[in-house]
Amino acid sequence: MDTRGRLIAGSHNRNELILINADENGRGDENGRIKSVKELSGQMCQICGDEVEITVDGELFVACNECAFPVCRPCYEYERREGNQACPQCKTRYKRIKGSPRVEGDEEEDDIDDLDNEFDYGNLNGLGPQEGAEAMLYSHLNSGRGYHSNASGIPALSAHETSPLSSEIPLLTYGEEDSEISSDRHALIVPPFMAHGNGIHPASFPDPSIPLQPRPMVPKKDIAVYGYGSVAWKDRMEDWKKRQNDKLQVVKHQGDGGNFGGNELDDDPDLPTMDEGRQPLSRKLPITSSKINPYRMIIILRLVILGLFFHYRILHPVNNAYGLWLTSVICEIWFAVSWILDQFPKWYPIERETYLERLSLRYEKEGKPSELASVDIFVSTVDPMKEPPLITANTVLSILAVDYPVDKVACYVSDDGAAMLTFEALSETSEFARKWVPFCKKFNIEPRAPEWYFSQKMDYLKNKVHPAFVRERRAMKREYEEFKVKINALVATAQKVPEDGWTMQDGTPWPGNNVRDHPGMIQVFLGHSDVCDVEGNELPRLIYVSREKRPGFEHHKKAGAMNALVRVSAVISNAPYLLNVDCDHYINNSKALREAMCFMMDPTSGKKVCYVQFPQRFDGIDRHDRYSNRNVVFFDINMKGLDGLQGPIYVGTGCVFRKKALYGYDAPAKKKSPSKTCNCWPKWCCLCCGSRKNTNVKTKKEKKKKSKHREASKQIHALENIEEGINEPNAEKSLNMTQMKLEKKFGQSPVFIASALLENGGVPQNVSPASLLKEAIQVISCGYEDKTEWGKEVGWIYGSVTEDILTGFKMHCHGWRSVYCIPKRPAFKGSAPINLSDRLHQVLRWALGSVEIFLSRHCPIWYGYGGGLNWLERFSYINSVVYPWTSIPLLVYCTLPAICLLTGQFIVPEISNYASLVFMALFISIAATGILEMQWGGVGIDDWWRNEQFWVIGGVSSHLFALIQGLLKVLGGVSTNFTVTSKGADDGVFSELYIFKWTSLLIPPTTLLIINIVGVVVGVSDAINNGYDSWGPLFGRLFFAFWVIMHLYPFLKGLLGKQDRMPTIILVWSILLASILTLMWVRINPFVSRDGPVLEVCGLNCD
């Protein structure tokens, strides 16, 4: 869609479409002519238009041995299974060909014995959705444009646009006529009035009343044998062998030049397996047995020790502190269940390795256009004041400079705040990209985000031998500094909003002046023919999108914005894959897309992959990472474990999706091994469980029952039935029913529906730019999703602020699997909130989303059974929504040490030797599990300990508040505001680390710190007062109290802030703490025995 770089704004509901900054000559052609469908050359199937394939024996597939009417294998098997089982041309009954399933009526054909395939029906919907999608699209958009519909309801071209009729070459000569063979010597003579099939219109069958020309062959001789022996067939086979040899040229280039000769290369049958380009594009790297086997043994041993521990704890209550004992046992049981949910999904950890060279050899052949799949990249932003435009600009620049074919990359920026600041910043970014992109690709620099490239502390001359590099780098750095000045000037200007709102350069009011009431806006900055880089090369597309917002509509925050991008990208570029990143996550590895394509485009295992998740890595975090912002334990241990099951969970950014999975389709079903049958017994033999007819009927019933769960496949199958012209009176009714189902699923946009049915992407042909423009505005309108399955079964799923977990969970329930990719160079890097308050608010938002999912119908505890979800994968999803509830027992358990110290009681009775051994074994197993996880996960002990500390800090603060807010929201209807995490630019090295922001989230951990410190002081004072015998029981209580204090130590450092000053709030809490200690001291009165003063006769007579 070429908009000549103008902003398009409009509202589908209000029937408005505005083209801003346009002249009369630049306006789009409203009556643009629709190009006719390109006719396919060569021998095509006369039913569906696909190319007739070559069999495994290297021979051409022939369905009918009587007339050799061109029919592909899927159409042949469908006609035998569902049709009249006869050739459409000569009406001869189809015979069963080896490799095809047996149907009713084949029993008397005893000349074929193929038990392996007689009931293997394969994919019932083998025909692609391309024809049905285009047919339905034409019926919606091209009415009145010179098109008409035929009897079956399929649109056909008008007479002046159809291709001229010509005689089609016989099938057995493979579509090429040999000049040395006369026309009467071919294996099959086709009447001259037969027209080409174009893949959309059903082919016209010859009139039976017109006699065919006689065939110059022996009538008794098989036509297939005759055709295969013809001269033209031999020439065709020679051409085919030549093409196969061309595909093996990679071996010649990869070899050392002395191992293979020319003749040996052509004759060696093992060469296809040696071809580097045909090898798998990735492989699994299981954890070595020396690391994983001890780890699994420790897990089993820890389970046994837990059983002994609870056996002792339950059978030995503390009578004088029964309440404390019961509370502690309940908390410990909850912790054990939580540990099981977290531990067992890590039972099969794996790593992966990709082969980028093989990807290039397979899909980027020299001298030919790249065959890599197109990728749409989504960048989401809301508030430019919290998400600085300079950070967003760096993310966009890293995307535009990615190492991928430019014609296959489209970047969509979603501005959900409709801010003119974001729009103007993108305009400046597109202009700077014309200089930045060729510089990156010329010198192959990393990373390709200019802010981080110019700020990295390294020798930029290392491995750079280009003589102009130093000069051009200095010039580019000056250009970037000027670019930063422009962006910062825009930010300064946007601080004060005019009373009348913002105005564009031509005087037009900015459509998004009212953030909550504005039309949809689309602006194509890059990607049209008028804009190239400074060297004249094409640039990737850069498209600004702001969806329509109106009062009274639910917009579903980020999930709604992502779904709007899915629809508008399907209309404009429709790539089969998409990558979504947050505005602060730039591409750190320019080959990240290629890494993902190694999994997505792998012909052996890529079809079932719904998304490829990359780990999150961060810049600007201090070396100690006191608040565990890097989250290394989760990304390097938990996610590797999930990758060995059904795949990692979706974490919201840095993820490449297959759009087919986002559209709610089921994963491709696994081909089951054929059922065992018996041909050696008579048909009446009871051991065979009835005749094959009954078996076929049963199989059809089972498939019909199973197809109820695959609604999308049924819809495409209906389109194929219509296209084949089966049962013409019912075809129009079936088309209408299918159209209604698709509109209910995807919405009332024929262009989007047609695009969604194209598995390999691509915009449907023969659609005018004016129609695409109108459809793009329609699909981002605020009421488009009403009464559809968007947010329920299609796209990002609504119902939680953490839409990422819910969306990935739904895909896994549909049978898809995901992949975890960890390149050597991190694929993406972002910024993280490093001060305590922002970090707690971030964790609060995540936990709140988990509570919302737990209280919804999509809770993994009871949702998705009977689908394709692995049971250990379900454990992981249950743990991801249950963990906020752990805050209650964790808060109680952290309070118990202080209570025990203050009251002199304990949760454990006097410990025996057996109990001591059990407790010691439990602590040793916990430590051993952590050490072995760090070993196979490659995690340092500092990161592991910081993760343990923040688990306690976040558990007693953010998780607790999230649980309360979630219950109020779901049960009480009290809504909570979505807080965008600040992504501030660096004003100094770790300057935000010491910023203290008071929030209510700080109250619970601060209280725990104070009461445990008070408990320690009181316990020690009491032991000093009571003598030596009281120190023994004190050690157990002190151990638990110090355990709590050590876990809260980073929180205490966050409260103190910088070392050279003390916040006022700390002074207040210190006074409160001193008061509590004073009162406790008076209450204890250590100078007086608990039994009162001891009076003894001193022996002196005072009288």
TrEMBL record:
Obligatory cofactor(s): Zn(2+); Mn(2+)
Catalytic activity entry: [(1->4)-beta-D-glucosyl](n) + UDP-alpha-D-glucose = [(1->4)-beta-D-glucosyl](n+1) + UDP + H(+)
EC number: 2.4.1.12
Region of interest: Disordered: 252-280
Binding site for Mn(2+): 558, 582
Active site: 416, 804
CDD domains: mRING-HC-C4C4_CesA (cd16617)
Gene Ontology cellular-component terms listed: plasma membrane
Protein name per the record: Cellulose synthase
Organism: Betula luminifera
Gene name linked to the record: CesA6
